[in-house]
């Protein structure tokens, strides 16, 4: 018996598909070599001697996956929420991000972010850092020490930025290459190409990133069709494209052989959606950010129904909360408003769909992640709902709903790829 | 010097108007006989010997006012959030409310509600109980012991309800009269007439309640124009009315000499709005409930601009959260979506407007409540933001914003009418 074999016992939940909430009351979730071996009501003979962590009546869920979060914006989450995207970038995001040229500040800020992310229910994340290579590597080092398994991106931006936060195209590409090389030291946390978005990236930069993507075989993330003034700006900047996504796809940076996460997709038109689906682009739905920055409500239910790959993002600090449970409730609530105010032919999201997006939907970017089906990474969180008082007896599905709506979002125990973080 | 004279020291915030956030850094808020005597940078001579509670760098705000909350639904907040209003009433609200015929259950449930409300930042609330007189009096007794100062309503419903939760008209009126008499024992918490809403109340019942309102001179609360199928139903039930509000106003139960809170007003038309304004009806805006039950987004910014009286409601359990800080962020976020998706001529709510609604806007129902202007009730909460970590130095307005978006909603200290609750 390998000593990395063990079991958690409790009430086990997962969503193999968007419509299916599977619940195993009082069962054993077995881990072998960092992967899920199976779920059992009674431990089979070959597992009878493995260590069992008994979580009693607690809830065991797949770790949550945050497909879009800005580590460098954590310091001002919940601030300046009275602006639209472009103004907010100028006033909030850029001045804060410029501080990460100072490695001492970066250490302070990224230590806080890493601590808070580690204490949360999130086990995997796609993270924007800043354009600063040393600070980005420092963040990756901190995540590596925490046990989290994330993608981390050094940001590229070589136009339309304040001087203090702008690279030349050559610098940007040279620093990116060096960062990709230096990132090879990490085993759990990996680099992800991260041009901020089209307005801050020249065609030359994008072409260079495309070469690096092929050479290093790394995934890619950026922003897409978030906010109406932004989309109009991209149209002016890229007169040869039919839709925003082509600003990326013309450089082979839009799914297919380039695993891609596009944040937001609030206003993607039919052509953009068709290409996303064809290429298997992951959509990072960030409902709270889309409210806070007055972007709108993405048609996420339709995305799920048409077979797009969809996960959830906190988008701190466009979103104020790191908790993906909050993102789940935000997504459901926004989908109800969308049904009521925009499109009564498309129903609201359900709780299983929200959990699916927060787990397997985004998890698939990382491989077999986000489910408790055999062979999936053993990413698990244990939620204790005993501090959510009620005088009602709730069944297990109801207890899950209450954890999502009402818990403080912090798990009682957390595992990533079979490793216990706490 | 009266011994009920004392001061709190700290950073003091209030909103005398929707557009004006007043901040007094490191100042003294003086209480005399339960009322605000003034705010001072240095204590004037007549106060030099009064007790001072020094809250250091903490934030001192007016207590928050919850204009609409169902105490009897607290047990299932965060549950069954996949239904519209009428279905949700049948499946969730009515079965739970029927349990309050049992005074033992009522004691358990209302003790929990009272404890949670007391620990929250809310100092005043307009509360729906159930139709059960003994349980409603018990709730009022519990609130009285807690130090909270609320309006509590025995619910009336004599049609279109499950048998287990329906009164005859005669019973309903007789029990209401008896409840109003018995409520005279309480000094801090007062009764408020509470027909559930038009679909569950006959004209005879409403006429009888109107007589009781005049006889006992008590305020009045109900629901108005919340959800489209509900509004259509009211049209069928009240063929003689031009708009929903007339179902109340035809019985003199819609402001004027009858202080009135109408919950929701999501779909109020121009005539209804004109009458609300003319009669000074208080609108209880409940944004989270309006999302959860798919009702829509009330035009609250327009209500403020046109001079309506507007406060906020948690509407537990249509809303899942008792925190009015959460209601403030929900209100702002929904107003941004409304601007984006419905009406680009009406801008989003600001933080001062949200704080105003949560304090003075709703507080005016209770008299001079919800501000720190001299003569206002000394309702104060002290918020400690030291557990919201950041690497940024925030000014006081920013710290307020972070408390609203990011705190757990529980004050460090709380006063109602000069009485310290904790």
Describe the 3D structure.
2 copies of one chain form a homodimer. By secondary structure, chain A is α/β, with parallel strands linked by helices. The first copy, chain A, has 2 domains: 6-63 and 370-420, Urease, subunit C, domain 1 (Roll); 64-366, Alpha-Beta Barrel (TIM Barrel), CATH 3.20.20.140. Chain A is 36% helix and 22% strand. The first copy, chain A, has 13 helices and 17 strands. Chain A has helices spanning 85-98, 103-119, 133-146, 169-182, 203-216, 228-237, 246-249, 270-279, 287-292, 300-305, 324-341, 351-363, 396-406; strands at residues 6-17, 20-32, 35-40, 52-62, 64-70, 122-128, 151-153, 155-156, 190-191, 194-195, 220-224, 260-264, 282-285, 309-312, 380-383, 413-416, 419-420. In chain A, the strands form 4 sheets. A 7-stranded mixed sheet of chain A has the order 3-2-1-4-15-16-17. Chain A has a 4-stranded parallel sheet with strand order 5-6-7-9. In chain A, α2 packs parallel to α3 and α3 (133-146) packs parallel to α4. The longest helix of chain A has 18 residues, at 324-341. Chain A is globular and about 60 Å long. The mean pLDDT of chain A is 96. Chains A and B meet through α2, α9, α11 and α13 of A and α2, α9, α11 and α13 of B.
What is the molecular shape of chain A?
Answer: globular
Secondary-structure element series of chain A? EEEEEHHEHEEHEEHEHHEHEHHEHHEHEE
How many distinct domains of chain A?
A: 2
Most extensive interface, residues per chain?
A-B, 50 and 50 residues
Strand fraction of chain A equals 15-25%
Would you state the CATH class of the largest domain in chain A? Alpha Beta
Question: What is the total tally of β strands of chain A?
Answer: 17
Assembly classification: homodimer
Name the CATH superfamily classification of the largest domain in chain A. Metal-dependent hydrolases
């Amino acid at each position: 018996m390998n000593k990395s074999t063990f079991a958690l016992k409790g009430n086990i939940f997962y969503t193999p598909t968007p419509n299916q909430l599977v619940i195993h009351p009082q069962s054993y979730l077995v881990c072998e070599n960092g992967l899920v071996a199976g779920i059992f009501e009674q431990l089979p003979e070959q597992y009878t001697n493995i260590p069992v962590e008994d979580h009693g009546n607690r809830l065991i869920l797949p770790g949550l996956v945050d497909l879009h979060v800005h580590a460098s914006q954590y310091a001002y989450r919940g601030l300046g929420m009275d602006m639209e995207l472009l103004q907010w970038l100028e006033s909030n995001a850029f001045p804060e991000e410029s501080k990460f040229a100072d490695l001492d500040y970066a250490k302070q800020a990224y230590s806080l972010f890493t601590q808070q992310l580690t204490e949360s229910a999130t086990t995997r994340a796609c993270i924007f850092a800043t354009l600063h290579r040393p600070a980005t590597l420092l963040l990756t080092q901190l995540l590596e020490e925490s046990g989290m398994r994330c993608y981390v991106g050094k940001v590229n931006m070589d136009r339309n930025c304040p001087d203090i936060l702008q690279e030349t195209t050559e610098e940007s590409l040279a620093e990116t290459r060096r960062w990709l090389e230096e990132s090879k030291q990490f085993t759990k946390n990996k680099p992800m190409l991260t041009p901020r978005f089209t307005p801050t990236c020249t065609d030359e930069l994008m072409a260079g990133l495309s070469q690096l993507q092929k050479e290093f075989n790394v995934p890619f993330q950026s922003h897409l069709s978030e906010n109406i003034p932004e989309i109009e700006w991209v149209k002016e900047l890229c007169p040869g494209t039919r839709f925003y996504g082509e600003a990326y796809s013309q450089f082979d940076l839009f799914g297919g052989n380039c695993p891609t996460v596009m944040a937001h997709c609030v206003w993607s038109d039919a052509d953009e959606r068709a290409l996303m689906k064809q290429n298997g682009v992951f959509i990072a739905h960030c409902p709270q950010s889309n409210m806070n920055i007055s972007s709108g409500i993405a048609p996420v239910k339709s995305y799920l129904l048409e077979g797009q790959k969809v996960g959830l993002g906190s988008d701190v600090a466009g979103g104020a909360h790191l908790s993906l449970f909050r993102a789940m409730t935000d997504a459901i609530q926004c989908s109800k408003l969308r049904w009521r105010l925009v499109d009564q032919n498309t129903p609201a999201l359900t709780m299983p769909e929200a959990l699916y997006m927060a787990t397997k939907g985004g998890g698939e970017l990382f491989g077999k992640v986000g489910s408790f089906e055999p062979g999936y990474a053993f990413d698990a969180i244990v939620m204790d709902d005993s501090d959510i008082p009620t005088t009602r007896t709730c069944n297990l599905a109801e207890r899950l709903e209450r954890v999502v709506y009402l818990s403080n979002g912090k798990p009682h125990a957390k595992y990533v790829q079979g490793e216990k973080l706490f």
